[in-house]
């Protein structure tokens, strides 16, 4: 017996005798509820390298990153590979200092 048939038997058996169509509708509703309950809501991130301006001193001179810098790095984390691939930004976000800043802020160094 496959998983869908088992789930249908369990769902339909739990509510007693039902018409086949009603049982299928109930099963679909249960699947939708489970999927929606497990869905993760992800926020869209607008990639804007100027958001990392609080990190510039840390990226260029090795200063300790500010809390604001760390917050911005965490917000812009999905954008870091794009910044690394951009020749105008790479010298900042892919520098040895930047790797230290990422580590200090608890942001994993991206593997692009």
TrEMBL record:
> What is an example of a GO molecular function annotated in this UniProt entry?
lipid binding
- Indicate the secretion signal residues: 1-44
Give the matching CDD domains: nsLTP2
- Magnesium is among the record's keywords: no
What are the UniProt keywords, alphabetically? Lipid-binding, Signal, Transport
Per its UniProt record, what Pfam families does this chain match?
Answer: Tryp_alpha_amyl
Where does the Bifunctional inhibitor/plant lipid transfer protein/seed storage helical domain lie? 47-112
Q: A biological process (GO) annotation for this entry?
A: lipid transport
Q: What is this protein called?
A: Bifunctional inhibitor/plant lipid transfer protein/seed storage helical domain-containing protein
Please name the source species.
Rhododendron simsii
Ranked from the top, the taxonomy reads:
Eukaryota, Viridiplantae, Streptophyta, Embryophyta, Tracheophyta
């Amino acid at each position: 017996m496959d998983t869908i048939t088992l789930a249908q038997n369990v769902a339909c058996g739990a509510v007693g005798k039902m018409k086949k169509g009603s049982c299928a509708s109930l099963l679909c509703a249960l699947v939708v509820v489970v999927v929606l309950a497990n869905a993760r809501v992800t926020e869209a991130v607008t990639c804007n390298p100027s958001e990392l301006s609080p990190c510039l001193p840390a990226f260029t001179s090795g200063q300790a990153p500010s809390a604001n810098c760390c917050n911005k790095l965490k917000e812009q984390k999905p954008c870091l590979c794009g910044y690394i691939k951009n020749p105008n930004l790479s010298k900042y976000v892919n520098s040895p200092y930047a790797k230290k800043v990422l580590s200090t802020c608890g942001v994993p160094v991206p593997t692009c």
